[in-house]
Amino acid sequence: MIPIPKAGILERVDGTLAAQAIPGITEVVISIALSQEVVPLPEGDKYLGFIFAKAETPVEVETALRQAHAKLKFEIN
After folding, report:
1. Proportion of the chain above pLDDT 90, given as a percent
2. Is 58 left (phi over 0), alpha (psi -120 to 50) or beta?
3. Rounded average pLDDT over 13-19
């Protein structure tokens, strides 16, 4: 799950291709459309999207997820 870092309007998402290029990452899904209002938990009820990974060990999956998430940049105003 990709958490919403702050409230506002989602203006831009960068880095999805770089995130998908991380070994072990199978899919990166941004589930909120641009120009939509975003509200972080616990007040909000959505995530920005999801990152999916597959690897031999849980540690490898966690590492891939963290690396992919670090590639994503969200512009929220």
Report:
1. 100
2. alpha
3. 98
